[in-house]
Amino acid sequence: MSRIDFKQVHKRYAPGLPTTIKNANLVIADGEFCVFVGPSGCGKSTLLRMVAGLEDITEGDLLIGGERVNDLPPAQRGVAMVFQSYALYPHMTVAENMAFGLRVKGVAKPEIERKVKEAANILQLAPLLDRQPKALSGGQRQRVAIGRAIVTEPKVFLFDEPLSNLDAALRVQTRLEIAKLHHDIGSASMIYVTHDQVEAMTLADKIVLLHAGKLVEERGSIAQVGSPMTLYHRPASLFVAEFIGSPKMNVLPATMVSAEAAQCLIDVSGVRVQVAVDARHIAAGAKLSLGFRPEHVGLDASAAGAGLPVLVRHVERLGDVSLLYVDYGKAYAHVLTVRVEGSVRPAVGTQLELKLRPENLHLFDEAGLACTRTVELPE
Ligand SMILES: Nc1ncnc2c1ncn2[C@@H]1O[C@H](COP(=O)(O)OP(=O)(O)OP(=O)(O)O)[C@@H](O)[C@H]1O
Ligand SMILES: [Mg+2]
Predict the structure, then answer these.
(1) Which residue has its alpha carbon closest to ligand 1 atom 30?
(2) Are residues 82 and 198 in the same domain?
């Protein structure tokens, strides 16, 4: 009922302007929590507003619950949208704000009261129903805005960066409430737009990462669709690999030496490194990019695996972990990040050897497309 299909969707705001959305093909299943992420300006809000009916679709089809909705007005789509700015009516109480949409529709008063009460209970707003928005915190106001969406019992909830006006602690709390809401209202699909990696990783059943700039023209808007763990462990391209994960993945230029089915041998500034990927389609001598995450580097010089000699430039101590910024390569041209336990604190200027295990490495061809990893990885 609440499944959403994008079929070959294109969006161009005006003739002469670059294509904002290109070749968007996507299925969001019944009850799924789907998160759109990507660089600023990549078209996340545009996609969401097309589902809401606030933006025309230039080409292609959009289906909600199997029905083509391209030409259906917003009010008839069964969707409710929550924005970054809460846009509450300042002169109305919390209860009146939540009831407003239903009153306009002519819903009977007892039913309105029941729905408002139910939503208030889900969102822990019951004690605040008689207050005006000015007497609420930012987090409480955003919950009222979510409540206003819940009472309309939509098939699809659309959230456009709903937490970005909140401080760090409130973001975490409201994030948990949204996760709980999704659990409690299992039948509704949710599409959630965010810049925040942690929100994307923790809330999503499915992440949709969007390209920006010239990659849109070359490859279409959608860079990769998958579970959070798929995007983390099996990024399809260098673009995805560098976008997902914080601190971001280290990338070094490399050259192919030889490839077998289960692993290959590459040259990284004179160091031979084994990588557990299938790169048999890449010729010896071809240019590559080697990727490894800051959390997947060992410092134990006696450990197995290739070792990259580096120089410690800077250490950030965060308490539970430390981030080491180290220089590598000829003339130490590459800065790498290493995430280690908080007690590790080498002095600036120390020489270290970074140990890279074949199964922790990612390899990308010259076009930036990933080679298939050949080790078993968590889903
Ligand atoms: N009404 C409009 N007319 C012309 N261009 C527009 C319009 N709305 C958005 N755009 C352009 O379309 C592109 C996508 O915008 P959109 O707001 O969807 O991006 P976004 O991914 O939501 O970005 P952000 O993360 O900054 O919110 C941008 O280049 C933007 O300038
Ligand atoms: Mg936006």
Answers:
(1) 41
(2) yes
